[in-house]
């Protein structure tokens, strides 16, 4: 009986390990936002180390929002030194979080929804350390309903 239990645990853990791996992802991280509200002056910083030589990457920005988020859209200011670590670029990206029918877009569980949008695609990057800084561009000084902000490099 102990042998069957041990084998079941090993199989379960092995399965979880296999399904938890993300194919092609070289960096994936989320930063938690203050539950009292994301301050307009609070910039989230992601430090990314890329090791592959002359490799093309896709970068995605990700949001985890609560169903209580008050707007249909979310505008983010993203500053990065990718693909050249000596030059900073600033971009604004838009997340459409609610469709025309009033339904929340993204995959959800309970009160939390996750949405991913392309930030940069097929960019040639040299090995090195890079930084992505994200702040919100909404009118609220303290934006409520955003739980986490993430970056995924694949």
UniProtKB/TrEMBL annotation:
Pfam families: GldH_lipo. Keywords: Lipoprotein. This is Gliding motility lipoprotein GldH. It comes from bioreactor metagenome.
């Amino acid at each position: 009986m102990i042998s069957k239990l041990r084998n079941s645990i090993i199989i379960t853990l092995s399965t979880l390990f296999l399904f938890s791996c993300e194919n092609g992802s070289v960096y994936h991280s989320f930063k938690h936002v203050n539950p009292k509200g994301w301050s307009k002056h609070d910039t989230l910083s992601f430090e990314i180390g890329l090791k592959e030589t002359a490799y093309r990457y896709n970068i995605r920005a990700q949001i985890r929002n609560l169903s209580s988020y008050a707007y249909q859209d979310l505008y983010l200011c993203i500053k990065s030194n990718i693909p050249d670590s000596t030059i900073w670029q600033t971009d604004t990206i838009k997340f459409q979080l609610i469709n025309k029918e009033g339904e929340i877009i993204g995959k959800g569980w309970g009160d939390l929804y996750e949405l991913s949008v392309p930030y940069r695609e097929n960019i040639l990057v040299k090995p090195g350390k890079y930084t992505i800084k994200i702040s919100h561009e909404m009118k609220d000084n303290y934006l409520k309903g955003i739980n986490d902000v993430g970056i995924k490099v694949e």
